[in-house]
Amino acid sequence: MAARSRRPAPAPPRTSRPSRAASMPPGPTRALGPALAHGQRRAQAAIRARASLARGKRAGAAGLVVAEGDSWFDYPFHSVLAALERRLGFEVESVAHRGDSAEEMAYDAAQLAGAARLFERLARQDRRPRAILLSAGGNDVVGSEFRLLLNHRDSGLPPLSEAVVRGVVDERVRFALASVLGALTGLSRHYFGAALPIVVHGYDYPVPDGRGYAGGFWLLPGPWLEPAFRQKGYPALAERAAIARALIDRFNAVLAALPGEPGLGHLRYADLRGTLSGELAGRRYRRSWENELHPTARGFERIATRLASAIP
Question: pTM to 2 decimals?
Answer without folding.
Answer: 0.83
